[in-house]
Design brief:
The chain has about 450 residues and is α/β, with parallel strands linked by helices. The protein is built from 17 helices and 13 strands. It has helices at about 20-35, 75-85, 85-100, 115-120, 135-140, 145-150, 185-200, 210-225, 250-260, 280-290, 315-320, 335, 350-360, 375-385, 395-405, 410-430, 435-455; strands at about 10-15, 35-45, 55-60, 105-110, 125-130, 205, 230, 265-270, 295-300, 325-330, 340-345, 365, 385-390. The chain has a 7-stranded parallel sheet with strand order 3-2-1-4-5-6-7, sandwiched between helices. The protein has a 6-stranded parallel sheet with strand order 10-9-8-11-12-13, with helices on both faces. Strand 6, helix 8 (about 210-225) and strand 7 form a beta-alpha-beta unit. The structure holds uridine-5'-diphosphate. Uridine-5'-diphosphate (UDP) binds near residues 269, 271, 330 and 333.
Length: about 450
């Protein structure tokens, strides 16, 4: 019998940011390996390189972002502009595709491209939403309007309540609620609300996560989002994200790791968007230096606000750590985390990084800067107990102590053991009868059913 997926084309519409492009391209590869044909509508901003994916077709749309507007340091503005300026071009592109291809089954869009609900309006094409973060953080976002009603955004005494628990969302504390820290909470709330409402109107919901980690959140998720839902992660167990890296990955980091002892190195990376001021960066440097542990540190140009790259680093730090530290602009992160020399990961708690760390069994030290990072780090520390959260402003003493706990103490060892159990569950989940495989089968069936029902 003909494989029904063979006859189906899926249109993907990613959000053009590193942490969103990676899992969307991975999802494209996963679905392609299931026999689906893949077309990708993408912006000029952070455009993927089509030559790396000859098995997909690419359709460029103008995004209207100038170099200046596209500054990723103003992430809310970029999100707003993309969701406003892409509606017309994406709709036109989709309309053309629908008129020239009779094999299109559905469109899969990033949840943060909430304009996609307007893009598909009256075109008769089912829309599946892909949320690139965890279910727990997505639920927290969905609950924000309730938290707003309860006064978490209007109370002038919020500072004094920072450590209080949020009874509506255990184990979160007031300081973990994402928009509380934003300079413009109203704008952030509006974007989150659009994302949540846009998702509620979809025909299905995909997560890059896995059942064994997030089972306790599922009932709550189905209460809020009554639609077929698919937990088919972790994606990078199917395909690496290296091909969609926007920056060149420095392979010198792997050669350097080859010279280090097993489990001796702390890998430090704060992802593609986070930025810190020079004071915080100095605390990081002295925390690393004082811990006396070997480290591989990704210092992305722009990580330290107002800097080109490393000009702010004290000479003394370079001297003290020259024998046991290695700094790169960007690393092949998945390969780094799977390297035998790596014994821990100090992360900004972006969801891809958390998942990659879990899969490779690296205990985490969690910092957080914005968005879902505060939520992810709370879950890693309090609920899953897979790492240690740095609770307050970065301070060298706390950093040193966390590094020692993770790399040298019993606490790190216990976390490593918990991660090992979880890794085994992930392996089972990816086997033919495992949860992730079953969800993937169900997703393939749903997409094929759209096609058989006819657009
Ligand atoms: N990454 C990488 N090299 C680095 C740092 C990060 O390839 O030096 C990748 C990492 O593997 C992950 C992505 O960039 O897939 C970052 O996504 P995440 O959700 O962790 O954070 P974001 O960058 O979105 O804040």
């Amino acid at each position: 019998m003909e494989n029904p997926s063979k006859a189906c084309r899926i249109i993907l519409f990613p959000l053009p940011l590193q942490g969103h492009i990676n899992p969307m391209i991975q999802l494209a590869n996963i679905l392609h390996s299931r026999g689906f044909t893949i077309s990708i509508i993408h912006t000029q901003f952070h455009s993927p390189d089509p030559s790396k994916y000859p098995h997909f077709t690419f359709h460029l749309i103008p995004d209207g972002l100038s170099e200046d507007q596209a500054s990723i340091h103003e992430i809310l503005r970029v999100l707003h502009l993309l969701n406003t300026d892409c509606i017309g071009p994406a709709r036109e592109c989709l309309r053309k595709l629908l008129s020239t291809h009779d094999d299109i089954a559905c469109i899969i869009t990033d949840a943060m491209m909430y304009c996609s609900k307007d893009v598909v309006e009256n075109l008769g094409i089912p829309r599946i939403v892909f949320r690139t973060s965890s279910i727990c953080s997505f639920l927290a976002f969905a609950t924000l309007p309730l938290l707003q009603e309860k006064g978490y955004y209007s109370n002038n005494n919020l500072d004094s309540r920072r450590e209080d628990p949020v009874p509506e969302l255990p184990p979160l504390r007031v300081k973990d609620i994402p928009s509380v820290q934003r300079p413009d909470p109203k704008h952030a709330l509006k974007i989150i609300r659009n994302m949540v409402e846009g998702t509620k109107m979809a025909s299905g919901l995909i997560f890059n996560t896995f059942q064994d980690l997030e089972e306790p959140n599922l009932a709550n998720l189905y209460d809020h989002f009554r639609m077929p839902t698919f937990l088919i992660g972790p994606f990078h167990k199917f395909f690496s994200a290296a091909s969609s890296s926007l920056l060149t990955q420095d392979r010198g980091s792997i050669s350097w790791l080859d010279t280090q002892k097993p489990h001796s190195v702390l890998y430090v990376s704060f992802g593609s968007l986070a930025a810190m001021d020079e004071n915080s960066a100095r605390e990081v440097t002295w925390g690393l230096a004082n811990s006396k542990q070997p480290f591989l540190w990704v210092v992305r140009p722009g990580l330290v606000q107002g800097s080109e790259w490393l000009e702010w680093l004290p000479n003394e730090f370079m001297e003290v750590t020259s024998q046991r530290g290695y700094i790169v602009k960007w690393a092949p992160q998945q390969e780094v985390l799977s390297h035998p020399a790596v014994g821990g990961f100090w992360t900004h708690s972006g969801w891809n990084s958390v998942l990659e760390s879990i899969c490779e069994g690296a205990p985490m030290i969690c910092s957080s800067f914005f968005g879902d990072q505060t939520l992810n780090s709370r879950y890693v520390n309090d609920a899953w107990k897979l790492g240690i959260k740095l609770e307050n402003e970065l301070k060298r003493e706390e950093i040193e102590s966390a590094i020692r706990k993770i790399m040298l103490d019993r606490e790190g060892q216990e976390i490593r053991e918990r991660l090992l159990c979880l890794k085994e569950k992930i392996d089972v989940s990816l086997k033919t009868d495992g949860f992730s495989s079953q969800y993937l089968n169900a997703l393939s069936d749903l997409i094929s059913s759209f096609r058989s029902a006819g657009l």
